[in-house]
Structure formats: structure tokens, C-alpha cells
Amino acid sequence: MLLVFSTLITGLLLHVPSLPVLHETIRNLYFHVPMWMGMLTVFVVSVAFSIMYLNTGKEEYDLAAVECVNTGLVFYAFGLLSGMLWAKYTWGQFWSGDPKQNSAAIAFLLYCAYLVLRNSIDEEQKRGKISAIYNIFAFPIMIVLIFVLPRMTDSLHPGSGGNPAFKTYDLDKTMMISFYPAMLGWSFIALWIATIRYRIRLIENKRNTIN
Asked: Which of 107, 135, 178, 211 could crosslink 10 through cysteines, CB 3.0-4.6 Å?
């Protein structure tokens, strides 16, 4: 929380490079990208728990995996919304059909399908195994959709289609003071929320077992 609050102060007050088109909107970099980093962090953890569930069959690992995905989808949604807002002020519209935007939307639906799949299976062990396998394969597909395919086509998004990413283009030393703490802060918050959700799910399961 301290890292994120420090970003709110330094990110809004410190100097940013004066660039055409971006101007002050570049400050959204302190929120848009770190939110997606938080999403990636809990998605990686969810894959680890899915692998552990397949190896052991322990229900706790399955619950941890699904709560990490639930948390990741929230951060994913915030990342999409902040990206759309940024696009409005730099590209002229919220959704321009940019390859990066389209790929991100497809990957988001891919993880939404994971939750739909879980809810469509009643048998506990079958649900856990099938959803774990789906989750393991969904993550690399998401990486390809978000980070690989957009680089192979023309895109307005930095880091895609030959358009250099911020680190090599305009992320100066002053911005790094806010950017890297934000990356850590939002990742820790995502893990913290996933942990709370997991503990709540364990309590609910115990209550259901007693009843």
C-alpha cells in the first residue's frame, strides 16, 4: 500500500518528458502497466497452484488457483479500462480496433471462459482437474495474444509492431522513480487480495462441510 500511495504522489508531481500526442497522459503509465503486472503475477501463481493440484489432488490448491484467477480478472479489467481511457486521449477513441486491444480482449474472454467452465461442472474432482489443465494452457496462450502477436503487426501501442516500448523511447530516470515501485506495489496488492479471497473460500468450504 505504501508503494502504491508513493506512486500517487511522485507520479502526479514529478516531471515527465514532454512528448507529442502523449503530453501529461503519460502519467497513466504508472497505473495501466502496473495493474497488468499485478494481473500477470496472480495468473502465474494460479498456474503454479494448478500444477500442484494435478500432482497432489488437494482441494486447497484448486481453490487457490481459482481465487488467483478471480483476482487477476479484476486487475485485467482495470488494465483494459485504464488503457481505453488512455487511448481516448492519445488515439482519439476508446477502442480503435488496434491489434493490442483486440488481442487483450480475446485473452480476457479466454479467462472468463475458465470461470464458465468451472461453474458448468458439478463433480468436484472432475471440475478441479479439467479447470487446472485449462488454466495451465490458457496462460501461455494469453502471453502469445498480448505480447507476441501484436509485435508482428502494425500497432499504435508502444512495444508493438515496431513501435518501441517506453523503456527505450521515453521512460526517463525520473519516471522510473514512480514506475518501478508501482509495479511492485500493485503486484503485492494483487497477491494480498488473492490471499484474502482464498482464506474466505476456505472458511466457506469448512462451513459447508459442517452443515
From this structure: 178
